[in-house]
């Protein structure tokens, strides 16, 4: 599977081998941005800007050996987020092998990108034993000419028994940050959030980090910004069909307890996840749900020594 603009250029889309011989697809854009997607988990494990700086965090101790999930990048939580149900934590989509969908139905998203891949996941006999529902999960990963990364998920109920099914979902995105204590998240101020299944209201004018955080923000705006003061970089997350946003950093004690996570790595990562958790999604047979997230990384503008979030959140 290869697409090339001219003989001298590297292919825009290339199927190759990754760690431990696992298949991965590399997407490249002309200006230098790139992304990598493992067929195992349908998981994005790298997103680099046109300066070839890595924008996602993958643990140095990540285990690229099925059935273990890959620690970092953008794991897909489906059909269950966390422990909100009877399945293993975060469901099974992130530790199944997806296939390349060579003949996908047209994606309505207007995109000028030619660097994209369409993946598909259908349940195996084993999956149907633990979650007895027929589905088709189509995932498009695309890289825009400007280097923005877009993930579009389309989940369809393909059952013939007339039964609806219900699921929760998240793009469990691990962002690479310079120093967690220098990072702030804008766009979730004054919102309600769930923590240990209790409901609270966010009081701060921006979210900063000095201890473990694991919160599900509810009814969130379509745009959220992560401001990395030290790197003078802002990540902007735009999302559709995903009303919630999970913010997670394990901090020191939890980091030490995870075998596939370095003891000090919590300082250099932050998960901000576009999600549908509080209200689960129900699909009747033949119905389709769509959830999309678009990630961009922009140089931060400074204003009296502070990053100016209003320009980021209110700008295009």
Give a structural overview:
The protein has 316 residues and is mainly beta. Helices cover 6% and strands 42% of the residues. It is built from 3 helices and 24 strands. The chain has a 9-stranded antiparallel beta sheet with strand order 7-8-9-10-22-19-18-13-16. Residues 302-307 have low confidence and may be disordered.
What's the gist of this structure?
The protein is mainly beta and 316 residues long. The protein has helices spanning 125-130, 251-257, 309-314, and strands at residues 2-3, 13-17, 23-28, 34-38, 43-48, 76-77, 99-100, 115-121, 135-143, 149-157, 165-171, 174-176, 183-186, 192-195, 198-201, 207-208, 213-217, 223-228, 233-240, 244-249, 269-283, 288-299, 302-303, 306-307. A hairpin with a 4-residue loop joins strand 4 and strand 5.
Q: Unreliable segments (pLDDT under 50, ≥5 consecutive)? A: 302-307
Instruction: Tell me the number of strands.
Output: 24
Molecular shape: globular
Average pLDDT value?
A: 92
H/E topology pattern: EEEEEEEEHEEEEEEEEEEEEHEEEEH
Largest sheet: 9 strands, antiparallel
Rg for CA atoms? 19 Å
What is the straight-line distance between the termini?
A: 34 Å
Strand content: 35-45%
Structural class: mainly beta
Number of helices: 3
Strand order of the largest sheet: 7-8-9-10-22-19-18-13-16
- Percent helix range: under 10%
């Amino acid at each position: 599977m290869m697409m090339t603009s001219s003989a001298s250029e590297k292919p825009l889309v290339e199927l190759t081998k990754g760690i431990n011989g696992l298949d991965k697809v590399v997407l490249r854009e002309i200006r230098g941005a790139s992304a990598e997607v493992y067929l195992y988990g349908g998981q994005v494990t790298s997103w680099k800007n046109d300066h070839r700086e890595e924008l996602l965090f993958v643990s140095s101790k990540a285990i690229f050996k099925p059935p273990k999930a890959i620690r970092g990048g953008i794991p897909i939580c489906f059909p269950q987020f966390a422990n909100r149900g009877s399945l293993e934590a975060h469901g099974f989509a992130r530790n199944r092998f997806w296939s390349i969908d060579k003949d996908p139905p047209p994606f309505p998203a207007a995109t000028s990108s030619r660097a994209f891949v369409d993946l598909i996941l259908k349940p195996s006999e084993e999956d149907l034993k633990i979650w007895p529902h027929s589905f088709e999960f189509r995932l498009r990963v695309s890289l825009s000419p400007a280097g923005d990364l877009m993930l579009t998920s389309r989940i369809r109920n393909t059952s013939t028994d007339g039964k609806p099914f219900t699921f929760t979902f998240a793009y469990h995105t691990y962002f690479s940050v310079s120093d967690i204590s220098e990072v702030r998240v804008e766009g979730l101020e004054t919102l309600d959030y769930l923590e240990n299944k209790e409901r609270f209201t966010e009081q701060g004018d921006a979210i900063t980090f000095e201890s473990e955080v694991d919160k599900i923000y509810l009814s969130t705006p379509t745009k959220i910004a992560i401001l990395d003061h030290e790197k003078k970089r802002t990540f902007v997350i735009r999302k559709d069909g995903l009303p919630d946003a999970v913010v997670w950093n394990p901090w020191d004690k939890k980091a030490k307890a995870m075998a596939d996570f370095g003891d000090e790595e919590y300082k250099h990562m932050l998960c901000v996840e576009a999600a549908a958790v509080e209200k689960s999604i129900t699909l009747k047979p033949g119905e389709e749900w769509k959830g999309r997230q678009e990630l961009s990384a922009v140089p931060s503008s400074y204003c009296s020594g502070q990053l100016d979030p209003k320009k980021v959140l209110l700008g295009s």
